[in-house]
Each structure stands twice: as C-alpha cells, then as structure tokens.
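Per your request, structure below.
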C-alpha cells in the first residue's frame, strides 16, 4: 500500500525591485503618476518667476535682486516713486482698468449678439462669415496692431490715436473670443428649448429673453471675465494705438520702464495687473458656483471655466 507524502510548497521567487518598477510603469489601470508630476513641474515652472516678481514689489529697498524686508513702499509709502504717487504709473493703472472695463462692457454684448446670429444664419454666406469671425484669432497680434494703426492714420482719421483708438482696437480683437465661448454654449443647448417655448405660445423675443439668455448666463459671465483679462493684459494693440503719455497702459509702461531705470515700483505695478486679472476670473468662478448651487448641479465652477461648453 503506497503512502502519499506531502511535498513542501515550492518557494515563490520574490519580485526584484526592477520588476516592481516595470510592472508599476506598465500597469494600464494605475493612476497617471508621471502626468501628474509633469503637470506640477510645469505649474511650478510658470508660477515661481511670477512669485519672485511679485515678492520684490514688496521689497523695502530699491534692489530687485536682494530682499531687504517687507514694505508697501512701492505701492503707497514712497512720496515720489510709488505706484500711487508717481503720476505716470498711476495713469497707466487707471488707463488699463478703463480700457478693460470698456472692452468688457462693449465686446461682450456684441459678441453674444453675433454668436446668436451666426448660429442661426443659414445659407451659402454663413460658412465664410463664421470663418471671418475667427480671423482675428489666427492673425498674429502684431499684424493686427499694425493694421489698426494704419487704418486710424490713413482711413479713419476722425479717431485720433489714444484712448478711443485703443478701445476700438481691444474690442475688435476681443469679440472673437466672446463669440467662440457663447457659440459653444449655444451648440450645447440646442434649439429645442426655444422651440418648446414658442410651441407653448411664447414669441421669439420672449423665448430669447426668458429662455435662451438665462441659459447663456454662464457663458456670458465667462466672456466678461475673458474680455477683461485679455484687454488689461494687451500690449501690442495698446502700444501701436497709444497717443499722448496719459494713454500708456500697464504693459506699455512696464516695457518702457524696464528699458530705462527699473525700480521695484514696476514690480508692484505688474502685481496689480496680475491681481486685476485674477479678480476678474475669480468673480466669474464665484458667479458660476452660485449658479450651479441654485440649479442643483454638482461639479466645480473652475471646470466650467476650463471648458468652452459652459
């Protein structure tokens, strides 16, 4: 009678460190760790120079390379060289804000109107018109600036170079961005809601005012923020269309100041430019967040701003 003898279990070879690393890299279901690392490296690479520039705007001394203590000297305290007390810096700040607010208030309604018209336009000329609306986006900004300069110098001489010319140039360049954002929202909504409202007895004007425009509110607010940020940050068009010294904007004043004798006041001025841009984007994000809560939708308002189909 044969007796089975239990064999000892075979020893399992422990995976080496290289095998573990290779399986970790090759795992298709793992988290995208390398993409996360690359993303954070890119964000850090972009943010560090900005933080350094902002930091020296609060420097107590004149140095823009050595930290000498925290101070608001270059914002308010210095009686001659601070942003608030230097007339050229203060006028550049006010001019930039004035142009940005004007561009935002004019370009956004025009862009919304054009987006609705282009979305409803049917016919042979619709496609060329849609392409021409995108033309400012694919045109190099320096070409746009030179072209507008020649237009105001030789063909449209009733408008002098200065604030009015700069405002018209900013509006011309910004409308296309508004149209793209609003049209993306229009395509996401579709015509069904307006058609249903008109089937229930609403006129086309009532359907537009009571149905479509409220549904376009996220895109409109995002367009307001984008128009403000693009205008206040613009250099090329502002530079070509400037007139007297009072029409200098923050970017053009930074450019001229850095070529001469730069001081930390320019860092402070650049910090204010960044703050205004962030304020515009934050305001739009807060409004979209409030709108999401009112509609009972989940998600992040930042995600809405990151997508065109808002």
């Amino acid at each position: 009678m044969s007796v089975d003898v239990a064999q000892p279990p075979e020893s399992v070879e422990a995976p080496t460190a290289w095998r573990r690393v290779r399986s970790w890299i090759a795992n298709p279901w793992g988290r995208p760790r390398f993409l996360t690392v690359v993303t954070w490296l890119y964000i850090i690479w972009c943010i560090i120079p900005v933080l350094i520039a902002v930091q020296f705007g609060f420097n107590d001394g004149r140095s823009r390379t050595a930290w000498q203590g925290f101070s608001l000297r270059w914002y308010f305290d210095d009686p001659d060289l601070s942003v608030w007390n230097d007339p050229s810096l203060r006028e550049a700040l006010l001019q930039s804000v004035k142009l940005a607010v004007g561009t935002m208030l004019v370009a956004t309604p025009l862009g919304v109107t054009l987006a609705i018209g282009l979305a409803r336009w049917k016919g042979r000329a619709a496609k060329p018109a849609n392409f021409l609306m995108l033309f400012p986006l694919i045109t190099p900004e320096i070409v746009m600036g030179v072209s507008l300069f020649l237009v105001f110098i030789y063909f449209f001489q009733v408008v002098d170079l200065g604030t009015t010319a700069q405002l018209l140039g900013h509006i011309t360049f910004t409308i296309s961005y508004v149209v793209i954002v609003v049209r993306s929202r229009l395509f996401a909504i579709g015509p069904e809601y307006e058609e249903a409202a008109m089937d229930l007895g609403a006129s086309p004007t009532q359907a537009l005012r009571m149905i479509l425009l409220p549904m376009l509110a996220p895109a409109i607010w995002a367009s307001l923020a984008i128009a403000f940020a693009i205008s206040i940050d613009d250099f090329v068009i502002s530079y070509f269309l400037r007139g007297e010294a009072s029409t200098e904007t923050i970017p053009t004043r930074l450019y001229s100041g850095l070529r001469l004798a730069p001081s930390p006041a320019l860092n402070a001025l650049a910090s204010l430019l960044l703050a205004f841009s962030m304020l515009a984007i934050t305001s739009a994000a807060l409004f979209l967040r409030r709108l999401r809560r009112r509609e009972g939708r989940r998600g992040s308002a930042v995600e809405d701003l990151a997508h065109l189909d808002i």
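The mean pLDDT is 81.

Regards,
D.
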